[in-house]
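Pipeline run #58 for the internal structure catalog. This entry was flagged by the ingest filter as a single-chain record with no existing model, so it goes straight to prediction. Upstream metadata was stripped on purpose; only the residue string is passed forward. Reviewer on rotation: M.T. Logging verbosity set to normal.
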Amino acid sequence: MRSPLILLISAPSGAGKTTVADGMIAATPSLRRVVTCTTRPPRAGEVDGRDYHFLEVAEFAARVERDEFLEHATVYGKSYGTLKRSVVALLEEGQDVLLNIDVQGAARVREEARRDPLLDRALVTVFLTPPTLGELERRLRGRGSDSEEVIRRRLEAARSEAARWREFDYLLVSATREQDLARMQAIFTAETLRRDRNDLHLGE
């Protein structure tokens, strides 16, 4: 028997953490993604309860007041948050949990985990980063979806976020998509094999 884990992937915006997270979900049957809450409106094709829990600003604020979020943040005027009960429910079912969260959110999750033995035992944090800011800029521009002002803000934020890599359990310097996914799978596998996550009873 093995206790479940929380695989938290964090990175500067545009570094590729969502691509790696999607790959991990597709390749790992035991890993479940937590549906997060947001105050932004749904985009074309997005479904409430599948892609996000779409909340009104007042409802989101009320949940913050009730301390329901494991972490939450406001990004470019829209709020996002991970409900603690969603994470705990999956862990109690024996499911591994994937969290795709920015650097500030990761710090809040670590702080919360220090107060909760279930979360503390389960949490594994990985910081994914391109080898240079120049490579990050190339990736951001390659997406073709951001204005020059947004790219500039993201690069400024990335400088301070990258300096916090020592706060994480693992550092993954991004290469190709395939290599990033393979190394993330290796981290996940190694963590599932840790002695303190397993309870072995050998028969006669």
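catalog note: The longest helix spans residues 177-192.
catalog note: The domain at 6-197 is CATH 3.40.50.300 (Rossmann fold).
status: ready for reviewer M.T.
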